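Reminder to self: tokens first, then the designed residues, so the page reads top to bottom the way the pipeline ran.
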């Protein structure tokens, strides 16, 4: 079922799969040390940023607001036990959940096994809420 949804999403958003394939080949050659999972995440984020600059700008403003209200550089908030590390526009987050299957995107398993938080913070610091990771 999830594969069908992904196929439908690719068809609706990109039409010609060859264009998407060419973009992925380009990313792979630029970021040779990354896994296929990281390439998929990077491709989706970069495509989203190109197609939806307004939503990305709004996300930047929200992250800045969160940083300004935090009590320290690690974005701690007094009334909460946990802190928010990343903030993505909802449509981007849902797309990432569609393309990244096992383990799910930013799940405990992905964080422990794949060090996904660390890679994401370095690769896409614009979505990192704390000033310091």
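Designed residues (133 positions):
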């Amino acid at each position: 079922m999830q594969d069908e949804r992904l196929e439908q999403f690719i068809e609706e958003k990109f039409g010609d799969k060859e264009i998407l394939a060419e973009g992925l080949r380009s990313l792979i050659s630029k970021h040779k040390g990354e896994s296929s999972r990281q390439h998929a995440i990077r491709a989706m984020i970069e495509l989203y940023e190109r197609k939806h600059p307004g939503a990305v700008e709004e996300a930047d403003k929200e992250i800045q607001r969160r940083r300004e209200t935090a009590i320290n550089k690690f974005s701690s908030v007094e009334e909460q036990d946990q802190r928010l590390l990343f903030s993505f526009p909802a449509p981007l987050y849902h797309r990432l959940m569609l393309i990244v299957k096992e383990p799910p995107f930013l799940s405990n398993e992905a964080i422990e096994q794949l060090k996904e938080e660390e890679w994401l913070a370095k690769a896409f610091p614009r979505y990192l809420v704390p000033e310091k990771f």
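Residues 3 and 29 are 26 Å apart (CA to CA).
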